[in-house]
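User: Teach me something about this protein's shape.
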Amino acid sequence: MDTKISRLRGRLFAVAAVASLVASVASCGPMARPDDAATSPAAAAGATAAPGTAAAPAHTSTSAPAPTPGKGPACPALRCTSVTITGDMLVHAQLWEQARADAPAAGATGLDFGPLLEGQRRYIEKSDLAICHQETPVAGAAGPFSAYPSFNVPPQIITAARRVGYQACTTASNHTIDRGTAGLVRTLDALDAAGLRHTGSYRTQADSQEVLILQTAAAKIAVIQASYGLNGQTPEQPWQVDMLDPEAMIAKARKARELGADIVLGAMHAGDEYSSTPNTQQRDVAHALVDSGQFTMVYGHHSHSVQPIEQYQGTWIVYGLGNAVTELSPSYVVNNEGLLVRAQFSRDAAGQWTASDLAWAPSVIVRGPYRWCSVAADAPQGPCAGAAADAATRQRTAAVVESMGAAAAGAHELLISKK
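Assistant: First, the predicted structure itself:
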């Protein structure tokens, strides 16, 4: 991508976007609150640095829902809603062997990924909407399964995601067409069967032109997602996977607004693997999306590492959520870590929606057995990898998350046990 062109595309909208965002943020009240804000672990160390209401399709009525505070923190405005997002669902052989071992305890045969994801439930239940990222194509229920470099993973991970409370998943990644059109369609079929809405990859050209709009009690939330590449592979049709193009994403965001979306989320599958800083493409695309004035928040995954949170022109950008699930890497400690982010959006008297609260929880994957585990200061699941290791993960995550000024802008650690 020509990064200079991507910057120029967005700048035309900057002045109007900044004025609107500054006015709306001012009306939403303070970001941090005493009930669950904790002293930043990075600052303390001297570092510098299920479900809500059913989803509604895009063609449903766009009449405004009745005012409601929504789930999450106290609502500082007329209407609020909250969204939880997590990173890559990257299933390797160790994880499906764990799921096979966990199934008998539930009185089941086959594979059960429920215990792996169970720690996320408490967070998801406190949010109106939860969105995951299905990184890889899925096989049939009986396999054969394969992991890197050409994934074909058990579809039971999708069922488990729905059962723990997710309502939607994004699907555009560098692995989307690992198994060609058949794998792409099989994955979308599995998501549909589980009752999970999706966007990013498509069965038909008509589908690719639609916008995913999800309904909570308070708002209509659009999700627009794209990938930086496909590992050098070429899809049978160019419309099968959304590619990272700010102009195309902005056009889709405008369409979402025309369809009645109150909030528009932009999701980028991009970045340098195992890097703790966003690359030029990530920054340029994210800034262009914000500058357009069409996006309420931008977030990303792919790097398999936690990356910073930035407030740019009054809008939050979460550059990298790390891994939601993965096997343990002996070489890259950052691969084993992730970020769960909950954003509360509030509507002011003028009808403008902005993020009135942004909170994050650091996580780690542990094994023996394999589990997702929160290492937030309130330790909602108890010890994960041990006191010292958990503290190191929390400190490392906080230092990265806050390295672009997130804490000063109001982002804070999410202490779910205090809700």
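Now, about its shape. The two ends are 44 Å apart (CA to CA). Residues 180-194 form the longest helix (15 residues). If you'd like, I can walk through any region in more detail.
User: That's plenty for now, thanks!
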